[in-house]
Design goal:
The chain is 48% helix and 16% strand. The chain is built from ten helices and ten strands. It has 241 residues and is of the alpha/beta class. The radius of gyration is 17 Å and the shape is globular. The strands form two sheets. A six-stranded mixed beta sheet has the order 1-2-3-5-7-10, sandwiched between helices.
Length: 241
C-alpha cells in the first residue's frame, strides 16, 4: 500500500493487485502502521481508504493469511482512530474486505463495485468481521448475505447499510463529504466519531477474543481445508449440492 496527503486528507491506497489486495500479514501490518501515523499527524483531519485495480479487498490472503488477532487489532485501531475513516470503493469487496469496509465511518462506492460474504462457501464464517458489520447492517439482509454468499451491487449495499452513499462518479459523490470533514474541528470530529462508532467499538471489545478463536478454529478445520483447496483447484467443494 502507499500513502499520500492533500489538504487535510490522508489517502491510504491498497496496492497489491497480484493478490487482489488480500489481507496478508504484510498488508495488515502496513495498514496499522499507516493509521498510527495519521493519528499522530495534526495536519490530517480525515483518512480516505481506497485501492488500485478492480478489487478493493478480496478478504483473507489464503496463501499468506494474517493472524486473526492482528486483523482484530486493525479493526479496533480503525474504530478507535480519533479521525474519521472514509472508504472509497470502485471495485469488488469480498469476505474479510467487507469487515475493513464496515469499520470505516463513511463508505462510498461507484457503480462497478460488488460485494459478497463468501465465507460459507469455503467452510468458514464471517466471524471477526461480524463485529463492525452487525451494528450497521439491516438484520434480515445480514442473515441472508452472510449465509448464502450471494453477490450484490452498490445500490443494495447502500440499502442494507453497508455503504453510506454511491454514485456514478465516486469522487464527485465524496466531494461534499470531504468538504464537510475539512471544515470540522479536530476535537469535534474525535468526540462525534466516539459517539457514532460506540456500538462497533463495544462489539470489538466484548466479542473480539471469542470470535478470533472461532475464526482460527474454522480455518484449521477439515471442511475449510477442503473449501480452500477447491477454490484454488477451481472446482466445487465436496459438500456442494
Amino acid at each position: 500500500m502507499h500513502a499520500a496527503q492533500a489538504t487535510g486528507i490522508a489517502t491510504l491506497t491498497l496496492d497489491s493487485p497480484g493478490n487482489r489486495n488480500a489481507l496478508s500479514a504484510d498488508l495488515v501490518a502496513e495498514l496499522r502502521s499507516a493509521l498510527a501515523a495519521t493519528a499522530a499527524d495534526t495536519a490530517v483531519r480525515a483518512v480516505v481508504l481506497t485501492h488500485t485495480g478492480t478489487t478493493f479487498c478480496a478478504g483473507a490472503d489464503l496463501k499468506s493469511p494474517c493472524d486473526p488477532a492482528d486483523f482484530l487489532a486493525l479493526l479496533r485501531e480503525t474504530a478507535e482512530l480519533p479521525k474519521p475513516v472514509v472508504a472509497r470503493v470502485t471495485g469488488h469487496v469480498r469476505a474479510g474486505g467487507l469487515g475493513l469496509l464496515g469499520v470505516c465511518d463513511i463508505a462510498a462506492a461507484g457503480p462497478q463495485s460488488s460485494y459478497a460474504f463468501t465465507e460459507t462457501h469455503l467452510g468458514l464464517a464471517p466471524a471477526v468481521i461480524s463485529m463492525p458489520l452487525l451494528p450497521r447492517l439491516d438484520p434480515r439482509a445480514a442473515a441472508r448475505y452472510f449465509l448464502t454468499a450471494e453477490a450484490f451491487d452498490a445500490a443494495e449495499a447502500a440499502r442494507i447499510g453497508l455503504l453510506t452513499l454511491h454514485g456514478d462518479d465516486v469522487d464527485a459523490t465524496l466531494e461534499p463529504v470531504l468538504a464537510g470533514l475539512r471544515k470540522a474541528s479536530p476535537q469535534g470530529l474525535a468526540a462525534t466519531k466516539a459517539l457514532t462508532s460506540a456500538a462497533v467499538r463495544e462489539a470489538l471489545t466484548r466479542d473480539g477474543s471469542r470470535l478470533t478463536e472461532l475464526s482460527a478454529g474454522l480455518f484449521a478445520s477439515a471442511e475449510a481445508r477442503e473449501g480452500i483447496t477447491a477454490r484454488f483447484e477451481r472446482r466445487e467443494p465436496s459438500w456442494s449440492l
